[in-house]
Write a structure and sequence with these properties.
The structure is a single chain. This protein is mainly α and 171 residues long. The chain has 9 helices and no strands. Helix 3 packs parallel to helix 7 and helix 4 runs antiparallel to helix 7. The longest helix is centred in the N-terminal third of the chain and has 25 residues. The radius of gyration is 16 Å and the shape is globular. The chain starts with 6 loop residues before the first helix and ends with a helix.
Length: 171
């Protein structure tokens, strides 16, 4: 079940507003006692989790998570972040956990917007298109979500389509 279909569940009485605010603060705010390299490492991990969360949401928006989509995400994570299989699986687990705690995708796209250049955000949307086309089919829910993610990442429609065509041509 994708995040878009979980709004009513997560927004219910089981999760008081204060709890969600605390979770968001923990996700985005780092301890001031950390040194610069520790902050950068923690920030990089958060960005990787945020990007992976978007990939997982895209892969599951149609209600299923195929082996082909899983393998595509694993390949992307290993290549893009130079991760081992074990580390890529751990990153996917961390991203899944953050997804279950979130109410929408804004927290993930906001993390990316705050830390990535326009070119890096275009690469993120390209990886999202790679997940969309992992099974060779563009479903209407996938198309809708990728357009919403493009808006949340502050990309133009033409940048979104150029990324799509680039991925389709390289497949």
């Amino acid at each position: 079940m994708g995040i878009l279909s979980k709004h009513s569940i997560i927004a219910g009485t089981d999760h008081p507003g204060g709890y969600m605010i605390d979770r968001l603060k923990k996700f985005f705010v780092r301890d001031d006692t950390e040194g610069p390299s520790e902050k950068r490492t923690a920030q990089d991990k958060d960005i990787h989790v945020a990007t992976c969360a978007l990939l997982l949401e895209m892969a599951t928006i149609d209600g299923e998570f195929s082996d082909v989509e899983r393998d595509r995400i694993m390949t992307i994570l290993k290549n893009q972040y130079s991760l081992s299989d074990e580390d890529a699986l751990a990153l996917m687990d961390d991203a899944r956990e953050e997804i279950t705690k979130s109410i929408d995708l804004w927290q993930f796209t906001n993390m990316i917007n705050q830390n990535y250049t326009e070119e890096e955000k275009i690469r993120v949307i390209e990886t999202i298109w790679k997940v969309v086309y992992a099974d060779g089919i563009l479903e209407k829910h996938e198309d809708y979500l990728v357009h919403q993610l493009g808006k949340l990442l502050r990309l133009t429609h033409s940048q979104l389509i150029e990324a799509k065509l680039k991925v389709k041509e390289s497949a």
